[in-house]
Specification:
heterodimer, A: mainly beta, 7-stranded mixed β-sheet, 11 strands, 0% helix, B: mainly beta, 6-stranded mixed β-sheet, 5-stranded antiparallel β-sheet
């Protein structure tokens, strides 16, 4: 079945460690997105990518990094520079401008 | 950048009641979607509606792009409609997809 897969569903990290969240899609979508959601809040854009080997910062990119080496994959690394990384992270993809976006199930990251 | 405001921020309804949720945006858009986030955090696509009106069962949506707003109508609400409703937009010439502030809906049995 086509869709967007985020893994893992739950992730625990020690303070000071980098961690990478996976996002894979088999929808042949061009654009991919990463959002952060804090409890009771809306979704804030971290990074987005329109095509392979290209990505742009969103509104809260500090402390995060991404890569887009394959069309299907858009991993997000939460670095130790991110001061408050505990949050719910959502990945999305869409085919092109003027089309709807679809979301993965999300990853809940907790810093312990 | 574009601002996307939703109202009301919170809404409590009795089962069977109708409601209207509003999404205002500060610039012209070429993409608009409505989502429902369930209690487990999953975002469910409701409508892709950059302009015009669409209906899907008890839900319908209208976007008036020239006046920079969209409305989501929920009729005969059910407890399973509870959750948070978001609109999201992109502006012309960009892939940047920005979410609104959300409306938290609780439907009481």
């Amino acid at each position: 079945d086509g869709g967007i897969t985020q893994s893992p569903k739950y992730l625990f990290r020690k303070e000071g460690q980098n961690v990478t969240l996976s996002c894979e899609q088999n929808l042949n979508h061009d654009a991919m997105y990463w959002y952060r959601q804090d409890p009771g809040q809306g979704l804030r854009l971290i990074y987005y990518s329109q095509i392979v080997n290209d990505f742009q910062k969103g509104d809260i990119a500090e402390g995060y990094s991404v890569s887009r080496e394959k069309k299907e994959s858009f991993p997000l690394t939460v670095t130790s520079a991110q001061k408050n990384p505990t949050a719910f992270y959502l990945c999305a993809s869409k085919k092109a401008r003027g089309t709807e976006a679809f979301f993965g199930q999300g990853t809940r990251l907790t810093v312990v | 950048g574009i601002q996307v405001e939703q109202s009301p921020p919170d809404l409590i309804l009795q089962e069977g009641a109708n409601s209207t949720l509003r999404c205002n945006f500060s610039d012209s858009v070429n993409n608009l979607q409505w989502f429902h986030q369930n209690p487990w955090g999953q975002l469910i696509n409701l409508f892709y509606i950059p302009s015009g009106t669409k209906q899907n069962g008890r839900l319908s949506a209208t976007t008036v792009a020239t006046e920079r707003y969209s409305l989501l109508y929920i009729s005969s609400s059910q407890t399973t409609d509870s959750g948070v409703y978001f609109c999201a937009v992109t502006t012309s010439g960009t892939y940047k997809y920005i979410f609104g502030t959300g409306t938290r809906l609780k439907v009481l049995a």
